[in-house]
Design goal:
The structure holds 2 protein chains of 2 kinds. By secondary structure, chain A is mostly helical. Chain A is built from 20 helices and 2 strands. Classes of the chains: A mainly alpha, B mainly alpha.
Chain lengths: 489, 100
């Protein structure tokens, strides 16, 4: 009864169904209470995992000795096994930690227009259940099912506002995500055909011993499919319209968490069963990641609309995650950098979309030019935007700084100077697009004839601020996260 | 060539056709059908490769059933969105992506 593993999946399913039946008003309260309990469960799980001692993060042993739970007492292969190690615990903490302030934000943001948001609360519940199940899944097929759960819930959320442009963005996103998971599933089929098992723990030694061509093809297909779902350049085409058009709380959930789910899966496979195959192609994701940093930042600098600016910044920040693959050595620095970047970007991007949501709500327009003079009316919101920007730029003491520092250290240890140049110029480009907004807000005088500022809600402003502050402060607690990433129970 | 391998190869061809269809076709209904073709291809590979020494293996069959459920759910969502787009824009094709 008290096993947090199963309840992390069951609880969101319960409150999602409850929220669907109760409607938006009471459903929102139920959802917030549910996520608060989930956050507590995630902390309990992290404490349990962290107490278990440490091993090299992501090594073959880390999944094998993790906390386990066989659902309903049926073990694999007929039943479903859940497993949690340090990486799982960090992802679970991040998911619930980002979701709780965002749901409080959403409650204020959606107050008033109940028709459009009838499905927000149930869909969020199913999305969170999909996340938690994905992070806890211990076999490749179960990962496929949870990946689809996350994808379908996310598509539903993109389509929620119901305008033609949003439906088109949702359909484009749906087709991208279906192709991605189809490729992944074909890979799973080939692997089952070769080895007769899909359990990650059992597969790792088998692939190490002997990898026939079919398995190499499977690895390539799965990687390609997951890169499409993570919106790595040049597969990012679906991301800006889907993330930039949705309501602010939805954009925040999508940008902060959904794309990280498929990245988590790449990391899990790359450091687990596919480690022996991965060395040959490790440069491909790194090169695409560098291209993503430069192209995404450039598009963010050019963007006319505020939310598009933030969405393109997501494309850029996802690039950093893929730089770690050629650097995944024995020292575990690159893995720590990747984990830290996931956490820092998750919090910062949620904060930035929330802050932009408030700006749009108050100015009534979604254009960078229209925030002129907003600083005096919404100091907290702009402070939140600025703090989130500090994390994206990678200035100390933020979590983004720690991530980039670890990444640069790992790159220098292996003599990859060009990568350092990409990381540093990415930070400078981020500064350009963040200051583009701040300059408008602080220095330029609003055109009074065009501007009619609505009243802003303090709850919204402070939730955005809380997320942004967390993204900076997480840098100060970096050692705990890094230690947790390497922990096994 | 064993029967299993024939199934798997046919599945791979169907999958490739499906992916090409989802990416290249314009009409939304055709793209949704192409997605289903893609799924069927994967299921053929899954069941075809898993026949060991003539004895069917129950695990991949359970996977295929789960996969079919997922595919039905995805198809339903895609059809609902396509119908909604049709009522809003009067067409079954996605508009060109705006530049920004």
């Amino acid at each position: 009864m008290t096993d947090p593993l199963a309840w992390l999946i069951l609880l969101p399913l319960f409150w999602a169904t409850g929220a669907f039946l109760l409607g938006p008003g009471r459903g929102a309260r139920l959802a917030i209470a549910g996520v608060a309990v989930q956050l507590w469960l995630a902390f309990a799980l992290a404490a349990k995992v962290g107490a278990g001692g440490t091993a090299p993060a992501g090594s073959a042993a880390s999944m094998g000795t993790a906390i386990k739970h066989a659902i309903g007492g049926w073990g694999a292969p007929l039943g479903i096994d859940l497993a949690a190690d340090g990486l799982t615990a960090v992802m679970l903490l991040l998911t619930q930690g980002v979701a709780l302030p965002l749901l409080l934000f959403a409650r204020g943001y959606f107050a008033g227009d109940s028709a459009a948001v009838r499905y927000f609360w149930p869909l969020t519940g199913f999305l969170l259940a999909g996340f938690n199940a994905l992070f806890l899944a211990a076999d490749l097929f179960n990962l496929y099912v949870t990946l689809e759960l996350v994808g379908l819930a996310a598509v539903g959320m993109v389509a929620m506002s119901g305008t033609a442009a949003q439906i088109a963005a949702a359909l484009r996103y749906l087709f991208a995500t279906l192709i991605g998971s189809g490729m992944y599933l074909l890979g799973v089929a080939l692997i089952y055909g070769a080895y007769g098992t899909v359990s990650i723990v059992t597969l790792t030694p088998l692939v190490n011993a002997d990898a026939p061509t079919a398995v190499k093809i499977a690895g390539g297909l799965m990687l390609l499919g997951l890169m499409l779902k993570t919106a790595l350049f040049p597969f990012h085409y679906w991301l800006p319209p889907a993330h930039g058009g949705a309501p602010a709380p939805v954009s925040a959930l999508l940008s902060a968490l959904v794309v990280k789910a498929s990245f988590y899966l790449i990391l899990r496979l790359w450091t687990g069963p596919f480690a022996p195959l991965a060395d040959a192609v490790a440069w491909l994701p790194a090169l695409l990641g560098s291209a993503a940093i430069l192209w995404g930042s450039w598009q963010a600098i050019r963007a006319v609309r505020l939310k598009m600016l933030v969405a393109w910044s997501t494309v850029a920040q996802l690039g950093y995650l893929f730089l770690i693959f050629p650097l995944l050595g024995a020292d575990g620095l690159a893995l720590q950098a990747g984990g830290m970047q996931v956490v820092a970007h998750g919090l910062a991007k949620a904060a930035m979309f929330a802050a932009v949501g408030v700006l749009i709500h108050v100015t009534g327009r979604d254009a960078v030019a229209d925030v002129a003079g907003a600083a005096s009316r919404m100091p907290v919101t702009l402070f939140a935007f600025g703090l989130a920007g500090v994390t994206l730029m990678g200035l100390p003491p933020s979590g983004g700084f720690l991530a980039k520092w670890l990444l640069i250290e790992a790159a220098l240890a292996q003599g990859q100077w060009w990568m350092v140049a990409v990381i540093l110029s990415g930070g400078l480009l981020a500064a350009v697009y963040v200051f583009r907004v701040l300059r408008q807000a602080f220095l330029l005088v609003p055109n009074e004839r065009r501007h009619r500022f609505a009243k802003s809600a303090p709850l919204l402003e402070w939730m955005a601020f809380a997320l942004a502050a967390a993204s900076v402060l997480v840098g100060l607690r970096g050692m705990e996260i890094v230690r947790l990433l390497g922990a096994v129970a | 060539m064993t029967t299993g391998l024939i199934f798997a190869c046919a599945g791979a061809i169907l999958f490739t056709m499906g992916v090409a269809g989802v990416m290249l076709l314009d009409h939304l209904l055709r793209r949704i059908l192409a997605f289903n073709l893609m799924g069927s291809g994967v299921f053929l590979v899954l069941v075809g490769l898993a026949q060991r020494a003539g004895n069917p293996d129950p695990v991949p069959q359970a996977m295929v059933i789960t996969g079919i459920v997922v595919a039905v759910a995805a198809t339903a969502l895609a059809l609902a969105l396509a119908r909604r787009l049709f009522t809003l824009s009067g067409g079954y094709t996605l508009p060109e992506t705006p530049d920004d």
